[in-house]
Amino acid sequence: MAQAKIGVIGGSGLYQMDALQDIEEVKLETPFGDPSDAFIIGTLEGTRVAFLARHGRNHHLMPTELPFRANIHAMKQLGVEYIISASAVGSLKEQVKPLDMVIPDQFIDRTRNRINTFFGNGIVAHIGFGDPVCEKLGDILYESISHLELDEVTPHRGGTYVCMEGPAFSTKAESYLYRSWGATVVGMTNLPEAKLAREAEIAYATLALVTDYDCWHDDHDSVTVDIVIEYLKKNAVNAQKVIKEAVRRINEKPPVSEAHSALKTAILTPLDKAPTETKEKLEVFLEKYL
Ligand SMILES: CSC[C@H]1O[C@H](OP(=O)(O)O)[C@H](O)[C@@H]1O
Ligand SMILES: Nc1ncnc2[nH]cnc12
Asked: Is residue 195 included in any domain, yes or no?
């Protein structure tokens, strides 16, 4: 079975990673259905990296339709310990401009239609999620962006990512509300992914790539897919440079993340009393606790 230490989830605009070498395409099955697409596993900076196009390589899945559980389960099967999530976002702050990159450290959940736990069916677990992003991985991403000094790109460390349901973009009232909460960016995908990654004991951090000012800004047109696409191409090129540098840094000194032991204090159900079927379904996460 193919293995990779680092996973990359590419969002809108990032459907492949050009720098991967010795690639193999791996289709994985999971107890939670099929992942968004086949994984492309290749070598980057001397380490195996598993790339997954979040919406599929032809962008055929809406945020609500994304098989988040299958994607994260498959990452775990591959032995992934770190996930870098590259995602397009709208800015909720004047000083965060299109082409900038944000490494959020908080999320607000405005989704309604997502399943964001692997647990249930006889096994109850409550993971800690006060700090939903791996701080060390976030630092590596921020340092990588800063080190590269990319044209027209200002890095922002910290900030709150509002995860909305979509697929329609926000109303102005919603956009003003998120701004009044002090949130930094808005997107539609990262919160369920971050929760499931934490349950899977995988360190997770978001590389948020700004494409627009949503619909709150008087001097900028309200977001449309055309506006987003205008920035996606440049963002995708920049994101690949950042990911390459971050992979080099992770490989040089793999950070020990609190996420790697998140289940240690989270499972309430005595596993010797739990249904065998559920234990089997969750084996890839639970094996070290059985
Ligand atoms: C194409 S604009 C809206 C779309 O883009 C973002 O996707 P991702 O997070 O996968 O980069 C946003 O969350 C929406 O899904
Ligand atoms: N303004 C926005 N709202 C939600 N998701 C986005 N992705 C990119 N821009 C966005």
From this structure: yes
Domain annotation covers residue 130: yes
Indicate which ligand has the atom closest to the C-alpha of 9.
1
Q: For residue 1, is it within any domain?
A: no
For the segment 248-289, what is each residue's pLDDT rounded down to a tens digit?
999 999 999 999 999 999 999 999 999 999 999 999 999 999
CA-nearest residue for atom 9, ligand 1, is 87
Mutate to test the pocket of ligand 1, among 60, 169, 188 (most ligand atoms within 8 A of CB): 188
CA separation for the pair 93, 175 (Å, rounded): 11
Q: What is the largest CA-CA distance in the chain?
A: 61
**Total of domains in the chain:** 1
Q: Which of 212, 218, 219, 272 is catalytic?
A: 212
Give the pTM: 0.98
Active site residue 109: no
- Quick one: DSSP state of residue 205? E
What CA–CA distance (Å, rounded) separates 122 from 124?
Answer: 7
Using the predicted structure, report yes or no on whether residue 241 has a pLDDT greater than 90.
yes
DSSP-derived letter for residue 116 is -
CATH number at residue 194: 3.40.50.1580
pLDDT band of residue 128 (cuts 50, 70, 90) is very high
- To the query of whether residue 105 is one of the catalytic residues in this protein, the response is no
210-230 burial, b if ≥16 CB within 10 A, otherwise e?
Answer: bbbbbbbbeeeebbeeebbee
* pLDDT attached to residue 1: 85
Mean pLDDT of the chain: 97
Residue 98 Cβ < 6 Å to ligand 2:
no
Closest-approaching ligand to the CA atom of 89: 2
259 domain-assigned = yes
Range of the domain at 152: 6-289
